[in-house]
Amino acid sequence: MAKRIEDFTISENRRLNDDIFVLAIFGNNYLPDLRPGQFVQVKVNDSPGTFLRRPFSIHDVDYEHNAIKLLIQIAGKGTERLSKLREGEHLNLVYPLGNSFTLPADNDRILLAGGGCGVAPLLFLGKYLKSKGFRPEILLGFRNSERIIELDEYHSIGQVHLITEDGSKGEKGFVTDHPVLRNGHFEHIYCCGPQPMMKAVARYCLSNNTACEVSLENLMACGFGVCLCCVTDTVRGNLCTCIDGPVFNIKELKW
Ligand SMILES: Cc1cc2nc3c(=O)[nH]c(=O)nc-3n(C[C@H](O)[C@H](O)[C@H](O)COP(=O)(O)OP(=O)(O)OC[C@H]3O[C@@H](n4cnc5c(N)ncnc54)[C@H](O)[C@@H]3O)c2cc1C
Ligand code: FES
To answer: Which residue has the least CA distance to atom 34 on ligand 1?
Structure first.
Protein backbone atom coordinates (compact mmCIF):
# COMPACT_ATOMS: atom_id res chain seq x y z
CA MET A 1 0.00 0.00 0.00
CA ALA A 2 1.42 3.44 -0.99
CA LYS A 3 2.65 5.54 1.91
CA ARG A 4 1.55 9.13 2.32
CA ILE A 5 3.11 12.11 4.05
CA GLU A 6 0.32 14.54 4.89
CA ASP A 7 -0.62 17.34 7.23
CA PHE A 8 -3.68 16.79 9.39
CA THR A 9 -5.51 19.36 11.50
CA ILE A 10 -6.39 18.80 15.16
CA SER A 11 -10.15 18.92 15.67
CA GLU A 12 -10.05 17.87 19.31
CA ASN A 13 -7.52 16.99 22.01
CA ARG A 14 -9.46 15.28 24.78
CA ARG A 15 -7.97 14.25 28.11
CA LEU A 16 -9.26 10.88 29.35
CA ASN A 17 -7.22 10.88 32.57
CA ASP A 18 -3.97 12.37 33.91
CA ASP A 19 -1.73 10.85 31.23
CA ILE A 20 -3.94 9.57 28.41
CA PHE A 21 -5.55 11.70 25.71
CA VAL A 22 -7.29 11.25 22.36
CA LEU A 23 -6.15 13.33 19.40
CA ALA A 24 -8.85 13.68 16.77
CA ILE A 25 -7.39 14.83 13.47
CA PHE A 26 -8.68 15.35 9.94
CA GLY A 27 -6.99 15.69 6.56
CA ASN A 28 -7.78 17.53 3.34
CA ASN A 29 -7.65 14.38 1.22
CA TYR A 30 -9.73 11.24 1.15
CA LEU A 31 -8.25 8.62 3.44
CA PRO A 32 -6.90 5.46 1.82
CA ASP A 33 -8.36 2.13 2.87
CA LEU A 34 -6.95 1.72 6.39
CA ARG A 35 -6.73 -1.62 8.19
CA PRO A 36 -6.92 -2.29 11.94
CA GLY A 37 -3.46 -2.85 13.36
CA GLN A 38 -1.79 -0.31 11.08
CA PHE A 39 -0.04 2.68 12.57
CA VAL A 40 1.09 6.20 11.73
CA GLN A 41 4.41 7.95 12.34
CA VAL A 42 3.87 11.41 13.78
CA LYS A 43 6.28 14.31 13.46
CA VAL A 44 6.59 16.13 16.76
CA ASN A 45 7.20 19.84 16.24
CA ASP A 46 8.64 22.22 18.84
CA SER A 47 10.13 19.46 20.98
CA PRO A 48 13.93 19.77 21.05
CA GLY A 49 15.41 16.28 21.26
CA THR A 50 12.41 14.60 19.63
CA PHE A 51 14.06 14.20 16.26
CA LEU A 52 12.45 10.94 15.16
CA ARG A 53 8.80 10.53 14.36
CA ARG A 54 6.74 8.68 16.99
CA PRO A 55 4.58 5.64 16.10
CA PHE A 56 0.91 5.39 17.17
CA SER A 57 -1.76 2.84 16.30
CA ILE A 58 -4.79 3.95 14.36
CA HIS A 59 -7.40 4.08 17.11
CA ASP A 60 -10.47 5.03 15.11
CA VAL A 61 -11.32 6.07 11.55
CA ASP A 62 -14.08 8.23 10.10
CA TYR A 63 -13.87 8.06 6.30
CA GLU A 64 -16.72 10.52 5.83
CA HIS A 65 -14.72 13.32 7.44
CA ASN A 66 -11.21 12.11 6.45
CA ALA A 67 -10.61 11.77 10.17
CA ILE A 68 -8.47 9.56 12.39
CA LYS A 69 -8.18 9.27 16.16
CA LEU A 70 -5.03 8.44 18.09
CA LEU A 71 -5.11 7.29 21.71
CA ILE A 72 -1.89 8.45 23.34
CA GLN A 73 -0.27 7.91 26.72
CA ILE A 74 2.34 10.41 27.84
CA ALA A 75 5.63 8.49 28.01
CA GLY A 76 8.28 11.15 27.41
CA LYS A 77 9.05 14.44 25.69
CA GLY A 78 7.36 13.67 22.36
CA THR A 79 4.04 12.54 23.76
CA GLU A 80 4.13 15.35 26.34
CA ARG A 81 4.39 17.84 23.48
CA LEU A 82 1.56 16.13 21.56
CA SER A 83 -0.62 16.35 24.67
CA LYS A 84 -0.39 20.16 24.42
CA LEU A 85 -1.65 20.39 20.83
CA ARG A 86 -4.74 22.51 20.40
CA GLU A 87 -7.65 22.54 17.97
CA GLY A 88 -6.57 24.03 14.64
CA GLU A 89 -2.88 23.11 14.98
CA HIS A 90 -1.32 20.75 12.44
CA LEU A 91 0.22 17.32 12.69
CA ASN A 92 2.33 15.73 9.96
CA LEU A 93 1.77 11.98 9.46
CA VAL A 94 3.48 9.22 7.51
CA TYR A 95 0.86 6.54 7.00
CA PRO A 96 -0.49 3.89 6.65
CA LEU A 97 2.35 1.76 8.05
CA GLY A 98 2.67 -1.88 9.00
CA ASN A 99 0.52 -4.93 8.45
CA SER A 100 -2.90 -5.55 9.95
CA PHE A 101 -4.92 -8.09 11.92
CA THR A 102 -6.35 -10.94 9.86
CA LEU A 103 -10.06 -11.70 9.68
CA PRO A 104 -11.24 -14.70 11.70
CA ALA A 105 -13.08 -17.67 10.19
CA ASP A 106 -16.83 -17.12 9.67
CA ASN A 107 -18.21 -18.71 12.81
CA ASP A 108 -15.29 -18.09 15.15
CA ARG A 109 -16.02 -16.81 18.65
CA ILE A 110 -13.81 -13.76 18.92
CA LEU A 111 -12.30 -11.99 21.90
CA LEU A 112 -10.48 -8.65 21.82
CA ALA A 113 -8.25 -8.53 24.91
CA GLY A 114 -6.47 -5.35 25.91
CA GLY A 115 -4.86 -3.65 28.82
CA GLY A 116 -4.25 0.01 29.69
CA CYS A 117 -3.39 2.33 26.81
CA GLY A 118 -2.45 -0.77 24.80
CA VAL A 119 -6.11 -1.03 23.89
CA ALA A 120 -5.50 1.63 21.20
CA PRO A 121 -5.83 -0.56 18.06
CA LEU A 122 -8.74 -2.59 19.47
CA LEU A 123 -11.42 0.05 18.96
CA PHE A 124 -10.78 0.29 15.21
CA LEU A 125 -10.47 -3.51 15.03
CA GLY A 126 -13.73 -4.03 16.93
CA LYS A 127 -15.65 -1.62 14.71
CA TYR A 128 -14.12 -3.18 11.60
CA LEU A 129 -15.04 -6.72 12.67
CA LYS A 130 -18.57 -5.61 13.53
CA SER A 131 -18.91 -3.97 10.09
CA LYS A 132 -17.96 -7.33 8.55
CA GLY A 133 -20.72 -9.12 10.47
CA PHE A 134 -18.64 -10.57 13.33
CA ARG A 135 -19.74 -10.26 16.95
CA PRO A 136 -16.58 -9.84 19.02
CA GLU A 137 -16.56 -9.84 22.80
CA ILE A 138 -14.17 -7.47 24.52
CA LEU A 139 -12.07 -8.04 27.62
CA LEU A 140 -10.45 -4.92 29.06
CA GLY A 141 -8.02 -4.75 31.96
CA PHE A 142 -7.00 -1.62 33.88
CA ARG A 143 -5.06 -0.83 37.05
CA ASN A 144 -8.14 0.54 38.83
CA SER A 145 -11.57 2.03 38.09
CA GLU A 146 -10.11 5.53 37.61
CA ARG A 147 -7.95 4.25 34.73
CA ILE A 148 -10.90 2.85 32.75
CA ILE A 149 -11.27 4.60 29.40
CA GLU A 150 -13.77 4.68 26.55
CA LEU A 151 -16.06 1.97 27.90
CA ASP A 152 -19.07 3.33 26.01
CA GLU A 153 -17.21 2.99 22.72
CA TYR A 154 -16.55 -0.71 23.37
CA HIS A 155 -20.11 -1.36 24.56
CA SER A 156 -21.25 -0.21 21.12
CA ILE A 157 -19.21 -3.02 19.54
CA GLY A 158 -20.11 -6.02 21.68
CA GLN A 159 -20.28 -7.54 25.15
CA VAL A 160 -17.62 -6.01 27.40
CA HIS A 161 -15.89 -7.87 30.24
CA LEU A 162 -13.95 -5.76 32.71
CA ILE A 163 -11.18 -6.52 35.15
CA THR A 164 -9.16 -4.20 37.39
CA GLU A 165 -5.99 -5.06 39.30
CA ASP A 166 -7.46 -3.79 42.59
CA GLY A 167 -10.98 -5.09 41.93
CA SER A 168 -12.48 -1.58 42.09
CA LYS A 169 -14.53 -2.38 38.96
CA GLY A 170 -15.36 -5.70 37.34
CA GLU A 171 -13.39 -8.81 38.26
CA LYS A 172 -10.19 -8.52 40.29
CA GLY A 173 -6.78 -9.32 38.83
CA PHE A 174 -5.08 -9.32 35.45
CA VAL A 175 -6.65 -9.88 32.03
CA THR A 176 -5.59 -13.54 32.12
CA ASP A 177 -7.44 -14.01 35.44
CA HIS A 178 -10.83 -13.14 33.97
CA PRO A 179 -13.13 -16.17 33.81
CA VAL A 180 -14.32 -15.25 30.31
CA LEU A 181 -10.85 -15.93 28.93
CA ARG A 182 -10.75 -19.38 30.48
CA ASN A 183 -14.40 -20.37 30.00
CA GLY A 184 -15.32 -18.45 26.87
CA HIS A 185 -14.20 -21.08 24.37
CA PHE A 186 -12.97 -18.47 21.90
CA GLU A 187 -11.49 -19.56 18.59
CA HIS A 188 -9.66 -16.29 17.85
CA ILE A 189 -8.16 -13.83 20.32
CA TYR A 190 -6.70 -10.45 19.36
CA CYS A 191 -4.50 -8.96 22.05
CA CYS A 192 -2.78 -5.59 22.66
CA GLY A 193 -1.21 -4.15 25.75
CA PRO A 194 1.86 -4.42 27.95
CA GLN A 195 4.17 -7.21 26.79
CA PRO A 196 3.87 -9.34 29.99
CA MET A 197 0.11 -9.37 29.50
CA MET A 198 0.37 -10.30 25.81
CA LYS A 199 2.82 -13.08 26.67
CA ALA A 200 0.45 -14.46 29.31
CA VAL A 201 -2.47 -14.42 26.87
CA ALA A 202 -0.23 -16.02 24.22
CA ARG A 203 0.75 -18.84 26.63
CA TYR A 204 -2.91 -19.49 27.36
CA CYS A 205 -3.79 -19.53 23.65
CA LEU A 206 -0.91 -21.83 22.72
CA SER A 207 -1.83 -24.34 25.39
CA ASN A 208 -5.50 -24.24 24.33
CA ASN A 209 -4.89 -24.26 20.60
CA THR A 210 -6.63 -20.89 20.22
CA ALA A 211 -5.61 -18.64 17.32
CA CYS A 212 -4.06 -15.45 18.65
CA GLU A 213 -2.60 -12.30 17.14
CA VAL A 214 -0.75 -9.64 19.12
CA SER A 215 0.35 -6.12 18.22
CA LEU A 216 3.95 -5.36 19.23
CA GLU A 217 5.21 -1.92 20.24
CA ASN A 218 8.96 -2.33 19.73
CA LEU A 219 11.04 0.83 19.73
CA MET A 220 11.06 2.26 16.20
CA ALA A 221 13.01 4.86 14.28
CA CYS A 222 12.34 4.94 10.52
CA GLY A 223 9.06 3.01 10.55
CA PHE A 224 9.57 1.55 7.05
CA GLY A 225 12.18 -1.20 7.23
CA VAL A 226 15.47 0.65 6.83
CA CYS A 227 17.12 1.15 10.23
CA LEU A 228 16.47 -2.39 11.61
CA CYS A 229 16.10 -1.07 15.15
CA CYS A 230 12.69 -2.70 15.59
CA VAL A 231 13.54 -6.35 14.85
CA THR A 232 11.82 -9.14 16.69
CA ASP A 233 12.91 -12.77 16.91
CA THR A 234 10.56 -15.11 15.06
CA VAL A 235 10.52 -18.63 13.66
CA ARG A 236 11.27 -16.98 10.28
CA GLY A 237 14.34 -15.21 11.73
CA ASN A 238 14.60 -11.57 12.73
CA LEU A 239 11.68 -9.60 11.29
CA CYS A 240 11.06 -5.85 11.30
CA THR A 241 8.14 -4.98 13.52
CA CYS A 242 7.44 -1.92 11.38
CA ILE A 243 6.89 -3.72 8.06
CA ASP A 244 6.44 -7.42 8.90
CA GLY A 245 4.38 -6.39 11.95
CA PRO A 246 3.32 -4.83 14.21
CA VAL A 247 0.74 -7.63 14.19
CA PHE A 248 2.12 -11.15 14.63
CA ASN A 249 0.53 -14.54 14.98
CA ILE A 250 1.86 -15.80 18.32
CA LYS A 251 2.96 -19.05 16.67
CA GLU A 252 5.57 -16.99 14.83
CA LEU A 253 7.08 -15.30 17.86
CA LYS A 254 9.95 -16.81 19.83
CA TRP A 255 8.51 -15.71 23.18
C1 LIG B 1 3.59 0.20 16.24
C2 LIG B 1 3.49 1.02 17.50
C3 LIG B 1 2.26 1.51 17.88
C4 LIG B 1 2.15 2.28 19.04
N5 LIG B 1 0.91 2.75 19.37
C6 LIG B 1 0.78 3.53 20.46
C7 LIG B 1 -0.50 4.08 20.78
O8 LIG B 1 -1.49 3.86 20.08
N9 LIG B 1 -0.58 4.87 21.87
C10 LIG B 1 0.51 5.16 22.66
O11 LIG B 1 0.37 5.89 23.64
N12 LIG B 1 1.72 4.64 22.38
C13 LIG B 1 1.89 3.85 21.29
N14 LIG B 1 3.12 3.35 20.98
C15 LIG B 1 4.26 3.71 21.86
C16 LIG B 1 4.70 5.14 21.52
O17 LIG B 1 5.21 5.17 20.21
C18 LIG B 1 5.79 5.62 22.50
O19 LIG B 1 5.26 5.70 23.80
C20 LIG B 1 6.27 7.01 22.09
O21 LIG B 1 7.01 6.91 20.89
C22 LIG B 1 7.14 7.61 23.17
O23 LIG B 1 7.62 8.86 22.68
P24 LIG B 1 8.12 9.98 23.68
O25 LIG B 1 8.97 10.94 22.91
O26 LIG B 1 7.01 10.54 24.48
O27 LIG B 1 9.01 9.16 24.71
P28 LIG B 1 10.59 8.98 24.70
O29 LIG B 1 11.17 10.20 25.34
O30 LIG B 1 11.07 8.59 23.35
O31 LIG B 1 10.72 7.76 25.65
C32 LIG B 1 10.17 7.80 26.98
C33 LIG B 1 10.05 6.41 27.51
O34 LIG B 1 9.12 5.66 26.72
C35 LIG B 1 9.74 4.50 26.23
N36 LIG B 1 9.29 4.22 24.88
C37 LIG B 1 9.61 4.89 23.76
N38 LIG B 1 9.06 4.30 22.68
C39 LIG B 1 8.40 3.22 23.14
C40 LIG B 1 7.68 2.16 22.54
N41 LIG B 1 7.57 2.04 21.20
N42 LIG B 1 7.13 1.24 23.33
C43 LIG B 1 7.27 1.29 24.64
N44 LIG B 1 7.98 2.23 25.29
C45 LIG B 1 8.52 3.18 24.55
C46 LIG B 1 11.24 4.80 26.23
O47 LIG B 1 12.00 3.60 26.33
C48 LIG B 1 11.37 5.64 27.46
O49 LIG B 1 11.47 4.86 28.63
C50 LIG B 1 3.29 2.57 19.84
C51 LIG B 1 4.53 2.07 19.45
C52 LIG B 1 4.63 1.31 18.31
C53 LIG B 1 5.96 0.78 17.89
S1 FES C 1 11.77 1.11 12.55
FE2 FES C 1 13.39 1.18 11.13
S3 FES C 1 13.37 -0.86 10.37
FE4 FES C 1 11.66 -0.82 11.66
So the answer is: 75
